[in-house]
Amino acid sequence: MTEGNFTDYVKVYAASGNGGKGSMHLHREKFIAKGGPDGGDGGRGGHIIIRGNKNLWTLIHFKFQKHFQAGHGESGGANRSTGADGEDVYLEVPLGTIVKDAETEEILLEITEDGQELIALRGGKGGLGNWHFRTATNQTPRYAQPGLAGEERELLLELKVLADVGFVGFPNAGKSTLLSVITSAKPKIGDYPFTTLKPNLGIVEYRDYKSFVVADIPGIIEGAAEGKGLGHYFLRHIERNSVLLFLIPADSKDIVEEYHVLLNELSEYNPELLDKERLIAISKSDMLDEELTEAIKADIKDKLEGTPFLFISSVSGKGIAQLKDKLWAMIQ
Fold first, then answer.
1. Is 195 annotated as a binding residue?
2. Is residue 101 a contact partner of residue 59, using CB atoms and an 8 Å limit?
3. 267 a known binding residue?
4. Is 14 flagged in the annotation as binding?
5. Crossing angle, helix 255-269 and helix 290-300, to 10 degrees?
6. What is the mean pLDDT of each run of 10 residues along the chain (332 residues)?
7. Is pTM, for the whole model, over 0.70?
8. 155: which strand partners?
9. Residue 176, marked binder
């Protein structure tokens, strides 16, 4: 899905290079009328290599170039000289990118570290020259191997955002507003559902020059795990977050019920998501007085089964410092 300059899902066509032909050369030299075979091997075809780049946050650079062809290997030559290998093609991707076969959707590889290189399509092997085929009974073989063909396929590049903390909540829960308050990110904010249609990343500056990365994941709707709305596009980004921050507005009809619906959607999509650290932030709490806040605390404390919670307001700044402290402690 794409909005603005954020692209987290692209399909590209890639082909590795063919291997070069082996040479059928027979040695010729002054005073040596009938030299033996000395044909060299062909060079290998170029690979298609996926490389992680920590400076990239999106797949937008694949929006306008979607065809990639590696170089072909050169043919072998005389004096057993091997042909040059075809030029490799590098596809730079942000960390958290998964590469799939577009036809079968099989996961081929996964990039999680800066500078990590993985071969997506191998170049064809170069053919052997006739020098390899000489025998006692056939001392001047006049044949050599052709190079092997390279591979070609359509690849799906799918980005799962890498962040320390992922915001989870229904549309209009205040996730984008919180992101804009605790980071320098400037997400689109509006008082209507689905303002955010793409993940937004921000860096929270903490004490003593420490920092951590948070991701505002677009709002979940009930049934997202079955693909309702844009469910799968949203939920896949949550898989990479080490801490999940559930944002539930203070004016929710039932805070505990809303939390359990969100938990259920995560569980339906991937049960392993429930193993992550969780924190509940009750947003928009500037609309509550102290008496109502205490009443809500008493009502939900035992129903959340030990999940920690706190009250925050992105507008008034209430609880924001405590939220940063708690998130930092959970990340560590």
1. yes
2. no
3. no
4. no
5. 50
6. 58 96 87 81 97 86 92 94 96 91 91 93 96 88 93 91 81 80 62 51 79 75 48 64 88 89 83 87 88 87 86 88 91 84
7. no
8. 12, 101
9. yes
